[in-house]
Each structure stands twice: as structure tokens, then as C-alpha cells.
Amino acid sequence: MDVERTRPVVVVMGVSGSGKTTVGRMLAERLGVEYAEGDEFHPAGNVAKMASGLPLDDEDRCPWLSAIAGWIAERLRSGRGGVVSCSALKYRYRDVLRQAGPGVRFLHLDVDRETTAARVARRTGHFMPVSLVESQFEALEPLRPDEQGGVVDAGSPPEETVENAVALLGGLLERSFSGT
After folding, report:
1. N or C, which end of the chain is more exposed by having fewer CB within 10 Å?
2. Treating both helix axes as pointing N-terminal to C-terminal, what angle do 58-78 and 91-98 enclose, rounded to 10 degrees?
3. Hey, what domains does the chain have and what are their CATH numbers?
4. What does pTM read for this prediction?
5. pLDDT for 180 beyond 50
């Protein structure tokens, strides 16, 4: 496999309510790649636990992260690239995703607690209660220098956030997605 010709997979990460799904879908459409919703990789037990107001622990997250890493690995192997939403709050969680192969890029959607809580409170049909928002911020570890990607402000309208994301990842994505 020619890594230089492989399209990357962008992991849109951040706390619940940061806009991962909305921005992830729009970014995937903009880049012409498949989008995967990270929440759909959760086993039923994880969904039930969060819906009851209990945060997940590292043991709960293992099968979820492994499933997402499998999707990333398949997309990288095929050379098709993609975008996946995943909270990926801790460095060690992102490490599991990075092990899927070269070409993983992180886009951290940064948003304040108040905006996040308001967004989560407005959602309908989602298993994540507003009571768990603070636990997400407590778990969040910033991207480190050895992690490819960057941070964008997600307090803006989604269209603006996507524009800022493309600008941030610009040269990296253009080279990777054009195959040059």
C-alpha cells in the first residue's frame, strides 16, 4: 500500500454536544468520503449505561474503540479514507484509533461547557443525558504534539466550523485526498 496515496481518516472528536455528528457529516460530504457515526459502534450495554446517567469506564470503551479502529483500518487499507465521529477524549483512546494505521487525523471540536450543556439538553432521542456533560470535560485530554490534527472552535454555526476545519487541515487534507 502506498501511504502517500492513501486518503486519511479524520476522527471528529470532542465532548458530547460539541457537534461531532453534524460537522462530521458535513465534512465527509465536503471531502467526498464516507461518514461513520461513532455512537453506532457502541454495544447495547454501553448505551443503556449512559442512558441511565452512568458514565462509561475504560473497560466499557474497549469494544467500542476497537470497533471504530476496525472501521478506520478498513478505510485506510482500501485507500478510500473517511470521516468518523468519536469522542476520543483521552490520549490512550486516540492511541487505539491511531493504531489502525497511518493516515489518522484528529479534528477536536472545542466548545464551552454552557453551550455544550444547552445543546445536549435540546437533543431528542439521544442516550446521552445532560448530567454526564461535566464528566466529559473532566475526561478530556488535549491533543498532544505527536497526534496529527488540530482544534477548531465549534461554538460557531456548523458551516463555519467546517470551513475552519478545512482551513486548519487544509494542506494535509488536500495532499492526502488528491493522492498527490
Report:
1. C
2. 30
3. 3-178 (3.40.50.300)
4. 0.83
5. no
